[in-house]
Amino acid sequence: MVLMTMIGRARDGLPLAASMQADEQSGREFQDYQAQAKQIFRKLSDRSPARCNIETGSMMFHYVIENGVCYLTLTEKMFPSRLAFGFLEDIAKEFWKQYSSEIPTVVRPYSFIEFDNYIQKVRKNFMDSRSRRNINRLNDELHDVQRIMVQNIDEVLQRGETLTELDDKAGKLKYQSGKYKSDAQYLNLRTAYAKYAAVAIVLLIFIIYVRYWLF
């Protein structure tokens, strides 16, 4: 069963739309899942897999990244991945159709919250994995879900922290490299000045010597 769906901009993790099953909206556990979903958005990068399954307790996050937008849903762990990704593909297509021109410029979280109506409509079509329509989806070989990466939520968040540390180290190395380059340029300049000064001194001595003997 699809329990929660969130849509976020991949480049900065800004939540654009969300939908939650009505009887789960007040649960503390689902507030934790919402927080995890937002953290996943913030951990995304250019090298993040375009599709991924993320285990979290008895649940599973599934996400798809298309056109710079991350479409993420939370289901029970036993819910078929094929249906989850079929659901995400459906809402991704419609969301891009409606809001593609606005997505890059919005700054307010949940600017497209009205999209919940469409998500709820599609969700009803994917709730029952035993329906004839969904059985056909499960038998569809267009998408090889077996190859989609499965990760644990703790590993995802830990990897994000590690990447941050690596970014910090890269920044320090870049600073040190720039400082070394600046120091090297300064030393080269001093060496050049020393050479010119030596030549000038020799030339001055020669001029004094010539003037002394000729005059």
Total count of helical runs of at least 4 residues:
5
- Which superfamily, in CATH terms, is the homologous superfamily of the largest domain? Longin domain
Helix and strand element order: EEHEEEHHHEH
- What's the Cα radius of gyration? 31 Å
- Roughly what fraction of the amino acids lie in strands? 15-25%
CATH architecture of the largest domain: 2-Layer Sandwich
Quickly name the level 1 CATH class of the largest domain.
Answer: Alpha Beta
Keywords: Coiled coil, Endoplasmic reticulum, ER-Golgi transport, Golgi apparatus, Membrane, Protein transport, Transmembrane, Transmembrane helix, Transport
Family: Belongs to the synaptobrevin family.
InterPro entries: Longin-like_dom_sf, Longin_dom, Sec22, Synaptobrevin-like, V_SNARE_CC
Subcellular location: Endoplasmic reticulum membrane; Endoplasmic reticulum-Golgi intermediate compartment membrane; Golgi apparatus, cis-Golgi network membrane; Golgi apparatus, trans-Golgi network membrane
Topology:
Elements (H helix, E strand, L loop, with lengths): L1 E8 L5 E6 L7 H16 L7 E6 L2 E8 L2 E8 L4 H19 L16 H11 L5 H8 L9 E4 H62 L1
Parallel strand pairs: 3-6
Antiparallel strand pairs: 1-2, 1-5, 3-4, 4-5
Function: SNARE involved in targeting and fusion of ER-derived transport vesicles with the Golgi complex as well as Golgi-derived retrograde transport vesicles with the ER.
Pfam families: Longin, Synaptobrevin
Membrane topology: Single-pass type IV membrane protein
